Amino acid sequence: RVLPSHSSSQPQRVIFGSPILKERLERIRAGLPTDAVVLAPETNSREALAELLADATILVYSGPVDDAFLDMAPNVRFIQRTNAGYENVDVEALKRRGILMANNGGANSGPVAEYTILLMLALLKRFVPAVNETRTGRWPRGEFGGNADLDGARVGIIGFGAIGDAFSALWHRCAARLRRGQQASHACQPSRTRLGKGKDRAG
Predict the structure, then answer these.
(1) DSSP string, the chain
(2) For the chain, which has fewer Cβ within 10 Å, the N-terminal or C-terminal residue?
(3) Which pLDDT tens digit goes with each residue over 146-190?
(4) pTM of the model
(5) What angle do CA 17, 20, 26 make, to 5 degrees?
(6) CA distances from 138 to 38, 102, 133 (A)
(7) Strand-strand pairing, 78-80 and 13-16
(8) Are the beta carbons of 65 and 79 closer than 8 angstroms?
(9) Closest Cα partner for 171 from 145, 153, 158?
(10) How far apart, in whole angstroms, are the C-alpha atoms of residue 73 and residue 93?
(11) Degrees (nearest 5) of the Cα angle 51, 55, 57?
């Protein structure tokens, strides 16, 4: 990505807010201008981060941001969030200092959708109790018979943001596979219905 404009003759100093594997840091550095300095703290302590903030011009960070934090980073002009929200950010403090910030909305929607289906299967198949019993040396197949199936299940999605949309798309693909290539039944296809102003529900 193109880094934000920087009027100083000094190179951009890109600081990550948490430790990063050396190999990953090198890959990030390779994608930036050759004079850019890319650093990350060695630990998750506030002290370790504070040592790097004084000269930072760009910060990749998802922790709390307020005036006290910004005082430690007087040269920062741009902050990239690695998550989607601004719930722990003092937006007015950023405005007062002329600092730009961007979030990363939707970046984790795919993995979260996959994890949701994983949890659905774990619950339906009573996976955790079955594993625990097996680890004790038992093989209680009779106790875990008759579990529910996703095939033909009706699934409701409350909230159609980035994660809800990603889950809906993934569920459609899974349902099609469960039908062995046949068109999934209506019961397997979430449908969106209006609940009220600004709210959607699928079920």
Answers:
(1) -PPPP--SSSPPEEEESS---HHHHHHHHHTS-TT-EEE--SSS-HHHHHHHHTT-SEEE--S-B-HHHHHT-TT--EEE-SSS--TTB-HHHHHHHT-EEE--TTTTHHHHHHHHHHHHHHHHTTHHHHHHHHHTT---GGGGTT---STT----EE--SHHHHHHHHHHHHHHHHHTTTSPPPGGGS--EEEEETTEEEE-
(2) N
(3) 677 777 778 888 888 888 899 988 888 876 655 544 444 444 455
(4) 0.62
(5) 115
(6) 53, 52, 6
(7) unpaired
(8) yes
(9) 153
(10) 13
(11) 125
Residues 6 or more apart whose CB falls under 8 angstroms from that of 8 comprise 57
Would you say 187 and 171 are in contact if contact means Cβ atoms under 8 Å apart? no
pLDDT of 124: 87
Cα distance between residue 89 and residue 65, in whole Å: 5
How far apart are alpha carbons 122 and 116 in whole angstroms?
Answer: 10
Q: What is the pLDDT of residues 70-96, one digit of tens each?
A: 999 999 999 999 888 888 999 999 999
